[in-house]
Structures are given as C-alpha cells and as structure tokens.
Write a structure and sequence with these properties.
The complex is a heterodimer of chains A (about 260) and B (about 200). Helices cover about 35% and strands about 25% of the residues of chain A. Chain A contains 10 helices and 11 strands. The relative contact order of chain A is 0.14. Chain B is an alpha/beta fold and about 200 residues long. Chain B contains 7 helices and 13 strands. In chain B, strand 12 and strand 13 form a beta hairpin. Chain B is globular. The two termini of chain B are about 15 Å apart. The relative contact order of chain B is 0.16. The chains are: A alpha/beta (about 260), B alpha/beta (about 200). Chains A and B meet through helix 2 of A and helix 2, strand 8, strand 9 and helix 7 of B.
Chain lengths: ~260, ~200
C-alpha cells in the first residue's frame, strides 16, 4: 500500500531559507541544502523548495541551489516559484529537480501544463493552487465558492478551486498542491472538506497545504481529507513537530507511513 | 556500508546514455557512494565497464527506437558484467511492452502491462513510497519502503526477486544471470535505495 507522504516546504530567498532559523541541531539552518538533507535523514518523504526571490540574480542562485540539493539529498524534491515557461522547467529539471510546481503562470496560461507534461511527463508537473473560501455576499454567482488567487494570494481570479483543479488534471497535471489561504498560518488544521472533495473527484494525488499546527492535523487530513500527502513549513522548521515522532504517531493511528 | 572506498573509487561504472530523462539523479546517487560514473553510448566503453546502469524515465517505443538506431540494443543484450536496469530500464529489458506496443530487449522473457485500476483510490501512475518484499535470495534488494513512479508494470515471473502490491502484486525487482533490474528508483529511495545500489556495486 502506498504510504501517505510528509513533505517539509522550504521558502528560499537569495539562496537562504526563510523562517528556518530555529531548526534544532543545525548550525546553518539558513542553508536550504543542509536543512533539506537534515529533513531527509529524519524521514521526510519528499521536499518542496519555493523560490520567493523575484530578481534575475536570485533565479540563478536558486538554480545553483537546486544542483546542490540534487547532489546531497536521496529523496525526491519539487521546486517552484516563478516558473513561467518551458525553459524554466527545463533549467530546473536539468539542475536535478524531480518535479516542478506551477501556480500563477498556469492560471494565466493553462496551456503551460500541457506543454510541461508533453515534454517531460505528467509525473514532473505539480499544479499548486492558492484558494480562499469566498462567503455569500449576495452579489452574484461566485459567492460561497473556493476561488483561486494569483501571485501568492494577492490577486483574486474568477476561477473556482474545483473547476481549475479538474482542468489541471485534464491537461495532464500529475498532482495538485492545494493551499487554503484561510487555513495557512492559523495552525488549526487543514481544509479537509475541500481536500476531500478534491481527492474524491480527481484521479491524481492531492497534497494538503496550510494549517498544520499539531500531529492530529496530519491524521485528520489523511483520514477526513483523504489527502495523499501533507505539506508544512514552520511547524517543522521551528521543531514544534518532529518528523520521526509525527510518523510514529500516524502509524499508531492506523495510517500507512514510511518509517 | 561501503565495502572498500578505494575499490569503489577505482571501479569503472558506466551509465547507458540514451533518450530517457532524469539520469542525473543516478549520477548523484553513485557519487554519494564514492563512484564517479561515465555517461556513454560508446559500445566499447560500455563493454569495458565493471558495472553498467541502465536507468531513465520515458516512453518505451521512443526509447527502444533510439536504442536500435544506435545499435545499443545488441550491446546491452550482450553485456557480460553486472547490469542494473532502473524503472523504464527494467521494462525495456523485458520481451514486450504494452506502452506503444513495443518489442523490447527480451532479456527477461516477460511482457510489460499497463496498470488497470478498478477502484478510485488506485491512482495511476503509481507514484510514491511503497513496500518492497524480497521473494528470492539471489537479488540485491531488501525489505523496506522504496520510491516508485510508473504506469506500466512487469508481472510476477520466474525471475522476480522482489514484489510490491499496487492494484495487484507485480515485479519490483528481477534477476537473471548478470542482469538485475528494479521498477523503483533506488537513487531516490533514501537509505534503503543507497544500500541496494551499494549491493549492486559490490557484486
């Protein structure tokens, strides 16, 4: 049986991890390569690196970092942030990434998903979706809906989460990484209702993101949200949840994990 | 784990260069074990290597077409030293693949099939960490979790040395004479994968 995956996410700016400063027993917690290696040794199943720099120089630094991650880490890793065209994908896969995650650029130009999967296969294409539940304002058809946002959640769109996720799958996406903007940073659990609806209606794996604050939240997203994987950042970076303990706990709750 | 770092450093390890992607992760994994492999499609260089790896991700008919065009099909079949096929490499070492209705190398007399899921939970490709179970003592694998990404599988046959259950039990590893093969990616399978690669290098 496939194991449920635990995925630490590292935000990288100018070659340094952001938010990673309190990581236990690591002299250079700011070094994304060393941090990723430490997570893989602890039993992380995959890693996600997000480039949050905007500059051209920053992109070059990020690509160099991807090469160093590939040389040092013995588990799969995904890279994302600022991927706008096929040549970005080519550059990052050549640097040694296993998968790329696309977000705003795919929302703006959905054909990007077809292009990536045609050139490199579905398994390399993770479509990341940032969405927020828009409450009924009595103003039209888009109320009481999960709406997708662009540019790290800054710009709302008219697309709904479920329509966009289905389209992404039809265009060949290999996985959906859904971040609930309502749950992100609140540490009160994942958006399990929306996750379950995604997981039950699509045939590709769903990665839950946003809301991890306790071990129970991971159990809940696997059991109630039917998620295939769960991603978190700060609870791992600050050592609030340690991956070996999390996995032992999940196994004791009857969830299949790799130990 | 490394039997002899000096021997590893001197060992000539070749990786078959062809039109299948994601070969660099195998290069990195070998480097972590102290081996500097050469990536080559030169028959003489492949024949002269102590060990040959045949990894990659890709589509079977295109990969076989490339191998035939470059005469690499005959070269791989005739290799005498230990050879390890990984992922599409394992599938290409079989007789035939349903992917593109492709005649393959025929080293293992078994036909590659497409996964046909019957339940919603059984997503294809089979992607992620799954359990490897040794079923024979002559392979290079060990029990544990390993990382898979594939939509086609090798059925269980007399050359199966390890199995994994997904939709149905299939061949996760094969062995016949000097030919070894695995469906999973040892280069991405953490410590367990490293040990499997090391065992291959120690053959």
């Amino acid at each position: 049986m496939l194991a449920k995956r635990i995925i630490p996410c590292l935000d990288v700016k100018d070659g340094q991890t952001v938010k990673g400063t309190n990581f236990v027993n690591l002299r250079h917690a700011g070094d994304p390569v060393e941090l990723g290696h430490a997570y893989s040794e602890q039993g992380a199943d995959e890693l996600v690196y997000l480039d949050i720099t905007a500059s051209h120089e920053g992109r070059k630094t990020f690509t160099e970092m991807v090469s160093r991650v590939a040389a040092s880490v013995n588990i799969p890793f995904t890279v994302g942030g600022g991927i706008g065209e096929l040549k970005d994908v080519d550059r990052l896969l050549n640097a040694g990434a296993d998968k790329v995650s696309v977000n705003s650029a795919a929302l703006r130009r959905p054909e990007l998903i077809d292009e990536i999967t045609r050139h490199f296969g579905s398994q390399v294409c993770v479509v990341a979706i940032d969405a927020r539940y828009v409450m009924d304002k009595g103003q039209g058809t888009r109320d009481n809906e999960w709406l997708c946002y662009l540019n790290g959640g800054r710009i709302p769109t008219e697309r709904t989460l479920f329509d966009w996720a289905r389209e992404a799958q039809e265009r060949g996406a290999g996985e959906i990484l859904f971040t609930s903007m309502d749950h992100d940073g609140v540490k009160n659990g994942f958006a399990n209702d929306a996750l379950r609806r995604l997981s039950d209606s699509l045939s590709i794996p769903i990665i839950a993101s946003g809301g991890a604050g306790a071990k129970e939240h991971f159990r809940d997203t696997f059991l109630e949200g039917h998620s295939d994987a769960a991603l978190a950042a700060s609870v791992f970076h600050f050592g609030e949840i340690k991956i070996p303990e999390l996995k032992s706990y999940l196994r004791s709750e009857g969830i299949t994990v790799r130990l | 784990m490394i039997k002899n770092a000096y021997l590893c450093a001197r060992m000539k390890v070749a990786i078959v260069k062809y039109n299948a992607g994601n070969i660099y992760s195998v290069v990195h994994a070998l480097r972590r074990l102290g081996v500097e492999p050469v990536l080559t499609d030169d028959p003489a260089e492949l024949r002269a290597a102590d060990k040959v790896l045949f990894p990659g991700q890709g589509e079977a008919s295109q990969a076989m077409g490339y191998l035939r065009e470059h005469g690499l099909d005959e070269v791989i079949r005739s290799l005498q030293q230990p050879v390890l096929g990984i992922c599409i490499g394992q599938q290409l070492m079989c007789r035939h693949s349903e992917e593109g209705d492709t005649d393959c190398l025929g080293i293992f007399p078994v036909d590659v099939k497409r996964f046909r899921p019957t339940r919603h939970e059984d997503k294809v490709p089979h992607m992620g960490w799954n359990v490897l179970r040794n079923t024979a003592s002559d392979g290079i694998t060990e029990d544990g979790y390993v990382y898979f990404v594939h939509s086609f599988y090798v059925p269980i046959c007399e050359f199966t040395t390890a199995t994994t259950d997904y939709i149905l039990p299939f061949s996760a590893a094969l062995h016949k004479d000097n030919f070894y093969a695995c469906q999973f990616h040892p280069e991405k399978s953490g410590r367990v994968g490293e040990q499997i690669l090391q065992r291959f290098l120690n053959l």
